[in-house]
Amino acid sequence: MEFLNKIGKKVSETYDATAEKTSRLAKEAKLKMKINENKSDIKQLYIEIGEKVYQKHVREENIDIKTELEEQCTKIDVLSSEIETCLNSILELKQRKQCPACHTEIDLDSIFCPKCGKEQPKMEAKDAEEIIVDLENAEVVPENETEKEIVEEKVTGENE
Predict the structure, then answer these.
(1) Quick one: how far is CA 31 from the chain centroid?
(2) Is 106 exposed, middle or buried (0-12, 13-18, 19+ CB in 10 A)?
(3) pTM (2 decimals)?
(4) Distance CA 156, CA 150 (A)
């Protein structure tokens, strides 16, 4: 009977891991689709800007970027910002970060970039005292009271 319990537990763990990975892949695919849509919209805005500039050139008129192209430029800025947010979300899903120097995807715990060798900024970690203060100030639902105690014990145990 114990053998069947072990098999059941292993199957359950495998299912959970597969479901989590599938969920991450689906989220990543949606984010990539959004990025491609935004890139397509940006290309269309570039075309509109180019047409306006060329029409002014043909008519030998001066073009005032602030008044005539501001709307398209603002849309491009918004779409570019959304693309950046999606890229950051993808990195979070993959549990990776981006080198600020060469923009290569690297592991979160990398001290140096494997591509360019640039030292990576250190991620700030809260010390145990800050965590305890956060826990003390947090609202705890009664059914989660024991979880709070367990976390406090672990933190204070590591700190001593």
Answers:
(1) 10
(2) buried
(3) 0.61
(4) 10
